[in-house]
Amino acid sequence: MQATEPDGAPRIAVLDVLRGIAILGILFMNINDMGGSLWAMFGDFRNLGWTQADQVAWWLREVIANGTARCMLELLFGAGMVILTDRAALSVGKRVVMKRYYLRNVLLFGFGVVHLFILLWPGDILHSYAIAALAAFLFRRMRPRWLITIGLVAAVAQFGGAGYFAYYQPQQERSQVAAVNKALAAGRPVTADDRKLLAKAATDDAKRAKSKAESHARIVAEDKARTGSFATWAAMQWSLTVTLQSKGFELLIFWEAVSVMLIGAALYKLGILQGLRSRGFYLRMTLIAYAVAIPLRIIGAIEQTRFDDAPKTMWATVEVAREAMTLGHVGAVCLLLGTGFGATLLRPFIAAGRTALSIYILQTIICLWILFPPFGLALYGTLGWAGLMATALAINIALLLLANAYVRRFDIAPVEWAWRSLVEGRALPWRKATLPPFSGELRPA
Asked: How many Cα atoms sit within 13 Å of 320 on the Cβ side?
């Protein structure tokens, strides 16, 4: 269940299976922003299509998968941090561990910048994870319980902060406004404070209406630019990247990623991510995680499909539900790998895990540069949720087959080879070594 890369990096099959599932799964999260309006995801996601089939596809994606591929990759980044820094400390000493790990992630950041501005994918995660990994590194020596405690800060902060400011306060205000309006309708006198409350509510309603109009205008402008020419498409993609970054998107992803990376480091140290615990442990882990995640996800999906302005509990629970669902998936994978059928079923994902970075870039090339640009097949805006999810599935099957064919002949995938060769300062071997033919002569060792 273990192997070694040409640069000496260890491979653990369970982690590769998880990584392979995560990197293929992330296309189900990205393809709607590649094949349809990215702005629609911040506005009315029915813009992509809302037939019966689309609704089924959206519900499955929202409840089972949304955010979990990204979360699993963050857990694995944390595990990789422990693996790589421990190996480096043994081979080159502790004083150069930070320098080497930081170089690795600075170079990964560079690949992410290319992904953003050259391949034109505003949703790149490489640069975000590279930055987050530099911060997470500072906590790597802590004990698992402290890593988990610190890592849960983001989920707890969102639960408390968003729960109070984004849900409880607006809900209270709506109740107060309803009471004042009822008093007015009944002809009862109201106070000056009540009138201020009504004025504030009217101002908030006007702001929401303006925001909806601006959101619709952005979707229309994006649709026009992405079905125009190469120049309008590229300009729109750059504009999306700059706008998302200016609105604090990077800070949000950084906060999320660092937190989950620390949890991933702890789970690796505890032997959980590698499948080293008992079947009973993984069964309990899976059942408890799903028992938390599935109800929260269903409630959140119901709230979103009301398509109203009412405060939503999911604003407070989304991170708790995302992490719980991901842990449920990890537990389910480890349970499957403990059976002969499950191990056979999941074995192909090892190859996807070993070629994850190259697969991630290939997903962008296939979708943004072949299927959905204003040139090529020019399919932007023609597929609803069901069509987009089916397309992602077909692409992933092809990439999984390609990955397995590739690793039979080569030791390292192309993008991984470029990245790790830069880290090592030399061109790594990439073809599988072939043994010399047996001469028929036995010699003493």
From this structure: 20
pLDDT tens digits for 344-394?
999 999 999 999 999 999 999 999 999 999 999 999 999 999 999 999 999
Q: How confident is the model at residue 440 (pLDDT cuts 50, 70, 90)?
A: very low
Q: Which helix (H) or strand (E) covers residue 227, if one does? A: none
Residue 160 has pLDDT above 70, yes or no: yes
- Cβ-based neighbour number of residue 370 at 10 Å: 13
- Cβ contact 78:262 at 8 Å: yes
Tell me which residue has tokens 């006007």.
206
Binning the chain into helix, strand and coil, the percentages to the nearest 5 are: 75, 0, 25
What is the H or E stretch that residue 329 is in? helix 314-337
Domain parsing of the chain, residue ranges: 2-172+215-424
3-state secondary structure of 369: helix
Across 85-99, average pLDDT:
68
Instruction: Tell me whether residue 44 is exposed, middle or buried, using C-beta atoms within 10 angstroms of its C-beta: 0 to 12, 13 to 18, 19 or more.
Output: middle
